[in-house]
Amino acid sequence: MPGFELFGAEERKEVNDVLETGILMRYGFDGPRKGIWKALELEKAITEVFGCDYAHLTSSGTAALTTALSALGVGYGDEVIMPSFTFVASFEAVLSVGAVPVLVDIDETLTLNPAAVEAAINPKTKCVMPVHMCGSMADLDALKVICEKHGLILLEDACQSIGGTYKGKKLGTIGDAGTFSFDFVKTITCAEGGVVMTNKKDIFVKSDGFTDHGHDHLGVDRGADLHPFVGYNFRISELHAAVGLAQIRKLDGFLAIQKKNNQALRAHLAAIPEISFRKVPDESGDSFSFLSWFLPNEAITKAVVAEFKEQGIMAGSFYWFVNNWHYISKWDHLKEAATLNGISTPQKQALLGLQQQQFPASDAVMSRCISTAISLLWTEEQIKEKGEKMAAAIKKVLAQQ
Ligand SMILES: *Cc1c(COP(=O)(O)O)cnc(C)c1O
User: Fold this and answer.
1) Euclidean distance between the first and final Cα of the chain, in Å?
2) Which CATH architecture has domain 254-400?
3) Atom number, ligand 1, closest to the C-alpha of residue 62
4) Most buried by CB count within 10 Å: which residue of 138, 243, 300, 319?
5) Taking a C-beta distance cutoff of 8 angstroms, is the pair 100, 123 a contact?
6) 3-state SS, residue 260
7) Tens of pLDDT, residues 101-120
8) Pocket residue to mutate for ligand 1, from 4, 57, 58, 62, most atoms within 8 A of Cβ
9) Is 164 a residue whose pLDDT tops 90?
10) What are the catalytic residues?
11) How far is the C-alpha of 368 from the C-alpha of 256, rounded, in Å?
12) Top-level CATH class of 3-251?
């Protein structure tokens, strides 16, 4: 999964280019920067590699989501439909723009269930935010149809699925806008960083201004820029962008290794008839950063997790159902509306309302699911050993049932 595993001379070279000039900021200082524009160069590379018209870098994936939502005009009074299984950043971004996150069930794709989305739509709904979790994608055709039918915005949180595709198009470039995270554990990293991708010029221009205090960036003198709207500082630095530039050049290599290692590990688990795998709407588009697999029921899954821990082979595998970061079951701070400052009444009501809301369909999926992160560093020998150990532990548990 993570690009940090293959950090090396290429990243150091790009960072050194910036350190040589000492111009660590992405804007201005045209003379002293001696033609070094790493953020601009990375944005151009992103549009080329992922096939979108515009890309604007941000300081994080969370900032990218916040920026995209703002640029898309999502805010107070609006509801954003998102999945019950995601990373906390997805609802953080929705809350930060003043909108209400509406959590709905996922299915065996581990992403939004289109029927659950449709059922949650009401006059306040403004945006549907699929989160392409664990390297693979939501059913984007179904979601697009729903969005078009109801006049809703489609914003893809593709932070975990860099390099994945859906029917030939890169994830993150299919909706009205899409985001990646380049934090330290993502498929390619900047240490910290993110990007808003879009094919709509106005969304790009708004994102560009929003992340830099509303600057219009039209003149050559930064101090003389106008501010057509209120923005914030979600800028990426040249140092971070430099790391990302080296990483994006390695992306095809990372994806090839992920695919090979994922399929090799999968073969060990596929030999066990009780195991099934995550449903992938476009199988050829999986980024293969995780192998997500299901056991027959919650009790067996918990027993397998316990056995893995006992044998010291749980590292790199995740039982999201009881994970603090990724699933509604553990988001007590969200359900208690435990914010540091005041939030709007609709937001507070919606969050407290989550205490009463049950997600049986999501529970039925997540309680049986284990995801194993795919390392770029595994040798064939290590995959064989890992696969055999995992399979033996699973068989041992199944035999005890
Ligand atoms: C990592 C991640 C984010 C946010 O990224 P940061 O760069 O860590 O802020 C958002 N959504 C998902 C699904 C993620 O995995």
Assistant:
1) 33
2) Alpha-Beta Complex (3.90)
3) 9
4) 138
5) no
6) helix
7) 999 999 999 999 999 999 99
8) 62
9) yes
10) 186
11) 28
12) alpha beta
